[in-house]
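C-type lectin domain-containing protein
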Amino acid sequence: MKLRVTYRLNAHSGGGTQQSWIYFQSPAVSYCFGGMGVIRPGENGTSGPGLLHPKKTEWSTERDWWYTQYRQLSHYLALLCFLLTMATLLQTFYLVQITLVFQSQSALQEVRLKDLTQKLNTLNHSYLLLFHKYPALNQYCPITNSSTNERECRPCPEGWESFGERCYLYTHDRLDWISSQYHCLSVGGNLAMVKSEEEQIFLWKRAKELSQGDSYWIGLRNGNPGGAWHWVDDSPVEKGFWDIFWDHEPEKGDTRELCARLSPGDSHRAGWYATMCKNSLKSICERTQGTLQ
C-alpha cells in the first residue's frame, strides 16, 4: 500500500490571505485537510472550509459486502453448531435415562423371578410330601403324564363316576351280597343307596349301558327274615319307592334272607327285584365325593 502526502500553500485573490493544506492519497481513500477543515481534493473552489466523507473505491465496496456475508454465514453456522450440540446432549441424556430405567427394571424382574422360582420349588416339595404322606390322594389325583408327573385331580377316584355329590363304581366281580358290601367298604364306600328318582335314573341308565343282561346289587335288604327293609346305613326306604321302583313288591312274612338287585329294563321304574342274598351278582358301590378343605 502506497501513501502520497502533498503540502500546498494557496493565497486568496482578494486579500492575499494564505491557506495551507495537506493532501493524503492512497489506493482506497483520499483525504484533504485544510487550514479550516477537510476539503474535497481536486475541486476547483478550495477556499471554503468543510468536512467530507471518504471516497471508497469499487474494490473496497465489494470487499465489505463479502465481509458482511461471511459474518452472517459465521453466525448461522455457530447457531447451527449450538443447536446440534444441544440436541446431541439431550439425546445422550435421554439414552442414559432409558438405560438406567431398563437396568433397574431388569434387576427388579430378576429378583422377582428368583423369588417365584424359590416359591415354586417349595410348593413342589410340599406337593410331593403331601402325596407321600397321604397315599389315598393318588386315587383322586392320578398321574396323567408320566414324563412330567403331571396329575389331574377329580372329585371321584379313578374308575369311579360322578353324579351329584357322590361317586359310583360298577364292579365286574360277581359276589354274594355281603361279600359285595365288604368289597365296597374296602374301596371307601358302601353298596349304592338310592335316595331320589334322579339317582335311580342315573344308576339305571348307566347299568343299562354297561351290562349285558346283568343285574347289580344295591345296598337294600331285609334286616331279619320277614322283617322291614332298610339301607346299609340302617335308614328306611323312602315312602313311595315301594310302588315306583319295585317290579314285584316283596311279600310280607317271607322268611328268606332277601336283598335288592337292580335289573336295567325298559324303564327306570320297576327295576328293583328281591333276590336271595347268597346269589352271585355284580354290584354298584357308592361313596362321597372328595373335597379340599
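thats it. Residues 260 and 274 are 5 Å apart (CA to CA). The two ends are 113 Å apart (CA to CA). bye
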